[in-house]
Specification:
Blueprint (H helix, E strand, L loop, with lengths): L6 E2 L2 E2 L4 H16 L10 E5 L4 H14 L2 E6 L12 H15 L4 E5 L5 H15 L2 E6 L5 E3 L5 E3 L9 E7 L4 E7 L4 H11 L2 H12 L3 E11 L14 H19 L3 E6 L14 H14 L6 H13 L12 E2 L7 H13 L5 H4 L2 H10 L25
Parallel strand pairs: 3-4, 3-6, 4-5, 6-11, 11-12, 12-13
Antiparallel strand pairs: 1-2, 7-8, 9-10
Helix pairs in contact: 1-2, 1-3, 2-9, 5-7, 8-10
The protein binds nicotinamide-adenine-dinucleotide (NAD).
Length: 392
């Protein structure tokens, strides 16, 4: 069939297998061309490995150090005329290319929060790798069902007071004010359950108790801070409370001594998750314009390749005073932020295209689903049924 993008709100309900493959390949080529740190992981588990920062982490570990990777994903295969999810196609492409290059890569598909998936991963590690020396936790999920059957849903709201600021409507490309309402206590607690550190710690505990965690294993999860304009919505909002919990969990796990746990504070980028946050997409499109003009723009792969090679596996991991790895160093630079702030103050629907890189935002959004890759014939008849080699 001919596969075209079908956008509904913040997501695209179709994905293009050839486009996803071309984009995975270009991330691989990027990593291959970079210098690599001498030290590096050899056996890596990536939880949330099919898109965004998790996929880029998997590619960086595999192609910087020849690491064997096991990925945990939550994706759908194609069914009839419905395409697979882009995470499915990304994973199929990654496994296929990795295997051509002689690299071990297998995947477990299912709910990472569940005990069943943790058990499946542990069995796979025992069978194929023995142990893992690095665990990347890169889940961005709307909900979590705990062992007792309770379902928690995360919210993107403020804490305390409502907050009004500019936002963009990507459909008609207009800028208007939006008011984000405060979360209730229950909503904040639920967001912490979903996006905080509890499940990360459960994973590390399960791996340790099963004897599949190497001595001196390293684990990292990802966070975001950003500038003042996004704070009420993000760092000080319900998601920020979950990220505080994630950071506290990292400190707790390191103090307990079994692993070295890190939080990497990453750059704001277009991913399936960030597209859904009010105010943030407008900030991202202004940020893209400023960082591209100054020649310091990075995508997920540039960020994660730099994380592994220059920070996490430097001879001594590079952190700020509080012990966090700062991949947002370029984004938060004073020159960048003062320019972003100026454009943010001035931006309106009328001057949108002079003040924000909307084309860049849209390009990245479509690429999340495999559309807009160079060298792909989008008019060609394409079979949506693609297998992930280790899953079938
Ligand atoms: P993403 O949506 O691109 O990727 C999330 C991944 O998690 C996907 O592979 C998805 O399939 C997987 N996933 C979701 N629920 C799952 C489940 N129940 N079981 C197994 N897998 C599941 O998101 P992202 O933006 O790459 O976010 C990853 C992490 O990076 C998050 O912690 C996020 O807060 C953080 N982060 C993102 C940004 C940003 O701007 N995008 C910035 C800084 C930090």
């Amino acid at each position: 069939m001919i596969i075209k993008p079908k956008v509904r709100g913040f997501i695209c309900t179709t994905a293009h297998p050839e486009g996803c493959k071309a984009l995975v390949r270009s991330q691989i080529e990027y990593v291959k061309a970079q210098p690599h740190s001498e030290k590096g992981p050899k056996k890596v588990l990536v939880i949330g490995a099919s898109m965004g920062y998790g996929l880029a982490s998997r590619i960086s570990a595999a192609y910087s150090y020849g690491a064997a990777t096991i990925g945990v994903i939550f994706d759908k295969p194609a069914s009839g005329a419905r395409t697979a999810s882009s995470g499915w196609y990304n994973t199929a492409a990654f496994e296929e290319i990795a295997s051509e290059d002689g690299l071990y890569a297998k995947t477990v598909n299912g709910d990472a929060y569940s005990k069943e998936i943790k058990d499946q991963v542990i069995e796979l590690i025992k069978k194929d790798l023995g142990k893992v020396d690095c665990v990347i936790y890169s889940l961005a999920a709307p909900r979590r069902t705990t062992a007792d059957g309770t379902m928690y849903t995360s919210v993107l709201k403020t804490v305390g007071e409502s907050y009004t600021n500019k936002t963009i409507n990507l459909k008609d490309e207009t800028v208007s004010d939006i008011t984000v309402e405060p979360a209730t206590e229950d909503e904040i607690n639920a967001t912490v359950k979903v996006m905080g550190g509890e499940d990360w710690k459960d994973w590390i505990k399960a791996l340790d108790e099963a004897g599949v965690l190497e001595e001196n294993a390293v684990t990292a999860a990802y966070s975001y801070i950003g500038p003042d304009i996004t704070h009420p919505m993000y760092a000080d909002g319900s998601i920020g409370k979950a990220k505080d919990h994630l950071f506290a969990t990292a400190k707790e796990m390191t103090a307990e001594g079994r692993v070295k746990a890190y939080i990497s504070v990453n750059k704001a980028l277009v991913t399936q998750s960030s597209a859904a946050i009010p105010i943030v997409p407008l900030y991202i499109s202004i940020l893209y314009m400023v960082m591209k003009a100054k020649g310091v723009h990075e995508g997920c792969i540039e960020q994660m390749c730099r994380l592994f090679n220059e920070k996490l596996y430097a001879s001594v991991p590079v952190t700020d005073d509080e012990g966090r790895i700062r991949m947002d160093d370029l984004e938060m630079g004073e020159e960048i932020q003062s320019e972003v702030h100026k454009l943010w103050t001035e931006i309106t629907t009328e001057n949108l295209s002079d003040h924000a890189d909307l084309a860049g935002y849209n390009e990245d959004f479509y690429k999340l689903f495999g559309f807009g890759a160079e060298g792909v014939d989008y008019e060609a008849d394409t079979d949506p049924a693609v297998m992930i080699p280790s899953i079938g």
